[in-house]
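# step 3/5: fold
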Amino acid sequence: MKQMKRVLVTGACGQIAYNLLFRIAAGEMFGKDTQIALNLLDVEAFKDEMSGVVFELEDSCFPLLKEIKYGFDANEMAKDSDIALLIGAKPRGPNMERRDLLLENAKIFKQQGSAINEFAKKNVKVLVVGNPCNTNALIAMNNAPNIPKENFFAMTRLDQNRAKYQLAKKANIGVEEISNLVIWGNHSTTQVPDYTKVSIKGDDISKYVDDEDWLKTTFMELIQKRGAEIILKRKKSSAASAANAIIDTIRSLYQKEKEIFSLAVYSHKNKYGIDKDLIFSFPCVSDGKGNYKIVENMQIDEYIKEKIKLSENELVEEKAQIAHLL
């Protein structure tokens, strides 16, 4: 018999989930040997929308999709989850300060962390996508003391994907030719897309992109501000590309491969001098079974170190603002 993965998806009526759910059900996340059960969670105000999404999943007739549960209670939907994709979060409104957004979302992720702690499988893997995702993941982790802290992540794969494409475009080569691109720090405008260790077709990046000024300014700022640029153009936040990055993240955890990927993880075992109590993006490798290791002993350029420190400081400040909820 094929194995079964039960996947909790929060914000199940949102744009990201709508771009994601059908791909999970089709086998893109875990492959054709894994059956899927979906637990879909959103707020009751979206009751009709939820029914419509479920109808479409049913009507798609996916052979791997064996069960769909949906509801509005986090405890009920967290039951027996193998994977929790925490997508739903309160968006930043007009004139809302970042601190206010942090506090509003902290309440959501405190509740969801508690529900996962009580009702999910004890080795559940939890990927937080709802922003500010690093600190939201820290909140969920601290409210789930029975789940290993290493099982909580925040997504920086979208940033990695964005950076990889821009380097490929600049070098006029395919994205598959680029490796060892790392995102450090927070999923915010302080994130650090580290181009210094990038390999292109097995060669040093300078062979294809010999423009350090472009790398330090145009490239880095483009990646840091890409999400805001998409909102400006679409009047909506990234959805399809975020869904794609979720799939890429889980694939990297469950498919054994040598390539480094970026993932924001609990920082307590890092060897880079980063504060030991953050969810921080590092270069990681996977064992193909849902587990990862932070890649150690990377030599970091001084310019990149300075940028990493700024991102670390931002995460320390965010943690201080929600410390009463940890």
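# step 4/5: annotate
The mean pLDDT is 95.
# step 5/5: archive (pending)
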